[in-house]
Design brief:
single chain, about 25% strand, alpha/beta
């Protein structure tokens, strides 16, 4: 299938405009993501309708805590990614084409089939997740457009490296996004992800301006992105540029893929980072990958009462009433925050 968002150049070259790499691709070659190929001067997507994963997940697994909490999300992915994170949590599928000589695997499906399955499983939303949804933009876009017609929400779980053109095209169909803000250092992004920090910040701000519910996740990796100064700067960016209602998920790292020389993140580091976020003025700061920790709960930022009691990805109790704290009547930010 012909790809969206590219321009033709001389000598049968093309320039992709999906993500901030803006790859110039010569005939017969692929972009950094390894799933978009120049065929005789036409850019083609190799993954349209070729799903490597499809599951029914709790929305909390994305993680999205402020979009219909406790609901189900039909979650899909193809292979491929435009980042090369050394700590990739889903490297077996995200980095498959890179690590396995261009191999692109997946089962054939259609946007219509995804919608039918989502509705059949009583899902409230469709999540484009697991790998980077920007690289399967065409399938995500066509599915999202159809999902909106059937009353389903659309959510991205993304590294935030899409171009303004891509966001402009898919934005009208997005209800929420969880964006990985992997660090607040361009050196980190360059060394450990093969990317840059600034475009991610631009995407976050762009999503917020479009009224998309934005939640942010930062995976804390010991001694790489855990300094107090860096986390303080990150928290202040969220507060000042996205607003105090922006949920921030601070997640625990476990050694994986090409970054196995680091230990798991101490719980104390996550607790300290959460406090930094709260001190910066963020109302909803969560700890992740430590099931049973009180940092999983949604608290009323005014009176401190537990509004949503969680264990891992499970909502055990939701006391929110008509979008407000039942104890002090303070509004709770989010979409579908109406309680059980």
């Amino acid at each position: 299938m012909e790809a969206y968002l590219y321009e033709t150049l001389d000598d049968q070259k093309v320039r992709c405009a999906l993500c901030h790499h803006r790859c110039t691709i010569k005939n017969g070659s692929r972009g950094i993501c390894q799933v978009r190929e120049n065929v005789d001067g036409q850019l083609r997507t190799l993954v349209f309708g070729k799903l490597i994963a499809r599951h029914v997940d709790p929305i909390e697994k994305k993680p999205l805590f402020h979009l219909y909490p406790g609901s189900l999300s039909y979650s899909v992915a193809t292979v491929g990614c435009n980042f090369k994170c050394l700590f990739c949590q889903n490297a077996d599928i995200a980095q498959m084409p890179e690590d396995r000589d261009g191999l692109v695997m997946g089962s054939a499906t259609t946007p219509e089939a995804v919608i039918r399955n989502a509705l059949a499983h009583d899902c409230k939303s469709i999540a484009y997740t697991y790998t980077e949804p920007t690289v399967y933009f065409e399938f995500a876009f066509e599915t999202a457009r159809l999902a909106r017609q059937h009353g389903l929400c659309n959510v991205l779980v993304t590294n935030g490296y899409m171009t303004p053109e891509a966001l402009e095209k898919i934005g009208p169909y997005l209800d929420g996004a969880n964006v990985d803000l992997k660090a607040y250092s361009n050196d980190f992004y360059k060394k450990y992800c093969g990317a840059r920090l600034e475009p991610v910040k631009e995407t976050l701000i762009g999503m917020r301006k479009k009224g998309i519910l934005v939640e942010v996740t930062t995976l804390l990796i010991p001694d790489l992105n855990t300094s107090e100064n860096e986390l303080t700067a990150l928290a202040h960016f969220l507060f000042e540029s996205l607003g105090p209602d922006t949920p921030w998920h601070i997640s625990r790292f476990h050694p994986t893929y090409k970054l196995t020389d680091r230990p798991p993140t101490p719980v104390s580091s996550l607790v300290a980072a959460r406090q930094i976020g709260q001190d910066a003025g963020l109302k909803y700061v969560y700890t992740g990958n430590i099931p049973g920790h009180p940092g999983e709960h949604t608290l009323c930022h005014q009176c401190g009462e537990v509004l949503i009691d969680r264990w891992g990805f499970t909502v055990q109790k939701n006391q929110i009433q008509q979008g407000r704290c039942p104890f002090c009547h303070t509004p709770v930010a989010g979409v579908g925050m109406d309680g059980a």
